[in-house]
Amino acid sequence: MIHIEDEFFLKKKFNFEKLKEFGFSFENNAYVYTEDFLDSNFKAIIEISDVLKGKVIDNLSNEEYMPLRIESFDGEYVCKVREAYKSILKRIADICCTDIFFADDQANRITKFIDETYGVKPDFPWKDDNGVFRHLDNNKWFSLIMYVSLDALLKNGDNRKLNIINLKIDGAKRDELHKINGIYPAFHMNHKMWVSIALDETISDDKIMKLIQCSFDLTE
């Protein structure tokens, strides 16, 4: 079965005021939106509660249009219905959602700052929660945000997880940086030239952005 909705709503956060402005109604503890499309032959029903659910109803039979979900059904008409449904999902995502790439608030704020400063969004080459930020011209990494346990950083047996950001540093400043609470030898990278910074509000956004600028310059 094709989970079409995942294409548009993974790593997204809904703005519920914008959902209401878009046309969602709140009923039975969920936000619900319906829209007829393709000359009213089909109806999209989107329901948002703890998770997002979507379905397409064939208005002629009043039953769910299941060919939409079956990958092997790739005829012209099915594809037309599928693309029209995707267009509705994309409008909702573009108007009612913001990107939320990572688990921790500071990680998402830093991601937004990076995008605003360098025009770079993270990519996820390992299809997990670890996002790479690359130079647009040479594709080199200048930072990496990961989701790891405290034990991975401190070897203290604490399995609580948090986002960290790996940044390249001037090696001459390594010892000075390691003395700062929240900055650690780099996880899974060269300890001489990289550090890991906890994105748990220990260090201010401004300080982290200055270190990101350093990493950006050193990797350019």
Description:
This protein is an alpha+beta fold. Helices cover 32% and strands 28% of the residues. The protein is built from 7 helices and 12 strands. The chain has a 5-stranded antiparallel sheet with strand order 2-3-4-5-6. The longest helix has 21 residues, at 76-96.
Give the topology string: H per helix, E per strand: HEHEEEEEHEHEEHEHEEH
Strand order in space, largest sheet: 2-3-4-5-6
Rounded to the nearest angstrom, the distance between the terminal CA atoms is 43 Å
| Main beta-sheet strand count, sense and barrel state | 5 strands, antiparallel
| Binned strand content | 25-35%
Task: Give the arrangement of secondary structure elements.
Blueprint: H1 6-9, E1 12-14, H2 16-22, E2 25-27, E3 30-37, E4 42-48, E5 52-58, E6 63-64, H3 76-96, E7 97-99, H4 105-118, E8 131-134, E9 141-149, H5 150-154, E10 161-168, H6 174-178, E11 183-185, E12 194-198, H7 205-219
Antiparallel strand pairs: 1-7, 2-3, 3-4, 4-5, 5-6, 8-9, 9-10, 10-12, 11-12
